[in-house]
Amino acid sequence: MSPVVESEEHKDLRAAVAALGRRYGRAYLTRTVAEGRHPAELWAEAGKLGYLGVNLPEAYGGGGGGVAELSIVLEELGAAGAPLLMLVVSPAICGTVIARFGTEEQKRAWLPGLADGSRTMAFGITEPDAGSNSHRITTTARRDGGGDWLLTGRKVFISGVDIADAVLIVGRTEDARTGRLKPCLFIVPPDAEGFRRRPIDMELHAAEKQFELVLEDVRLPAGALVGDEDAGLLQLFAGLNPERIMTAAFAIGMGRYALERALEYARERSVWKTPIGAHQAIAHPLAQAHIDLELARLMMQKAAHLYDAGDDAGAGEAANMAKYAAGEACVRAVDQAVHTLGGNGLTREFGLASLITAARVARIAPVSREMILNYVSHQSLGLPKSY
Prior knowledge:
The chain is α+β, with helices and mostly antiparallel strands. It contains 10 helices and 7 strands. The protein has helices at 8-34, 40-48, 67-79, 86-101, 104-116, 232-268, 280-308, 312-341, 353-364, 369-380; strands at 121-124, 140-143, 149-159, 166-174, 181-188, 195-199, 210-220. The strands form 2 sheets. It has a 4-stranded antiparallel beta sheet, with no helix packed on it. Strands 1-4-5 form a 3-stranded mixed beta sheet, covered by helices on one side. 46% of the residues are buried.
């Protein structure tokens, strides 16, 4: 099926999740952030209704769908003003990696809980000195001679560690044949000896807290390694492509929410004889924001379609483009929404000012727009690398 035309099942899913989102809404999320807690009620209900695990295999309690379905869930929650960032991390990245590459024991242990929301998993890849260069990751794992692994390193900007039952850590092991380090993924319990976390003080006000992790010879059993020790890059990018697609969904949902608030205001606010939305200086930028969001959604749907069809290479290009387009569209939509409301756009009453900072996340994380332009320039256009 073409990713442009949604199936009836997708339309029904979109409508059902939108209804759930409206029952909670922006006021609920703002309240949970102000109280310093997580949106546990929304997370639990979304899990009970089967929305958190729509992408996971039915054999392990999931919905049997793919990233296309999960992106609809996040987009519609975001459009209602109540996005769940951990949807990007727990079922999309960690759930996908375990479903594709985990052992049978790992699948049975984790997938049912990730699907119904009773268990949550964080994802640790970013490091202080590596940034966007995953080849510079210094977190390393070595065998102790008895079958266990010892994991040592640091991670930063890791979301939701305080509520996670485990963290999927990207480390590196030494190839016995070449001596080179290769990426591997490990399931690490946060209460393991040698595992420490420190909250990062963020200007961004969000329900999901950010953490720095320190791992000092964290001992892990052999079964903590996910998949094949020699297939690290394949496994890593199996999680990173859904991450980019879901980040696009997050951004599109946020942009839609901001745009709808601006449209409501522009239809009703009258300073002269007609509502301000009748003036082209107001109407045209809002129309452009809508067009940009719709175009970004099309690329997101294409990326999800390719990924779910098993085309990892094609999905890589599309996922990066979708994340780039959605991030840009979100920032412009939020900026124009605030501008449309004028001074009201900066008040707590209308709830748009907090999105100014939040919208930039889609430009920065999980990879900057400049790195995406680098990817497209040398992977898609065949231009030489500058780094």
